[in-house]
Amino acid sequence: MDFLLSAAAIQFPLTVTFGSSVGEIVHLATKVTRSVVASNTNLGIILLLAPLVADAHDGPGFRRRVQKVVASLTVEDAALVYEAIRLANPGGLGDSPEQDVHSEPTVTLLEAMKLAADRDMIARQYANGFADIFDFGVPALMDAFVKFGNVEAATVDCQLRWLAEFPDSLIVRKRGLAAAEDVRTRVREVLHLGGLASTQGRRAGNDLDRYLRSDGNKLNPGTTADLVTACLFVALRENKVQPSSPFRWDAPDWLAP
Fold it and tell me: pTM of the entire structure?
């Protein structure tokens, strides 16, 4: 319910964006989220979607326009985003040696993101112009959509592909890099067994799901979920997937009790 309320809350700041900066979008979306829920449900989603909605133009060249938005980020954007991060208070945030979010920034938001890009996948998207989203995530999502014929299975498969390729930043912050790499190994085994396309792979996926939910949910791959959300947005924005596309996946042995 918290995620549904948060999604509804950020509809206005993410859609009425004409003339707003990325920092203003992030700050307002975070503020309205905190007005309806008590925990951080969507900071990563907001940080990824803000540059994607900051340019309201339609037509070809969407990726280039996103890169232009990121390249034009300012120190004021950084200040507003820092304030939003403090408001959301994400788990495992800790301190940084340079441009720590608990202090006022002295560099642009892009420069600040570049400083964090080696340890945070969301910051990395800013630093590389959202290359991972456009070159890896969206193609993975669309390959799965063609294969399975529905959005639900494509979303799950896309998440598995992300987890197999990149250590999840939230797991790294909460449990360390070794734990995140262990999750990568487990995900790769699921895919090796066929992933969603085989009974054996789905059975291994069930086991993986239970493992990720263990130990107080400290292995929640939350950053990967945020990245998948951005992939879904781009796919919709570029008309690769339609709101009317088949959604439900009929696989009764997936996430079976």
Answer: 0.93
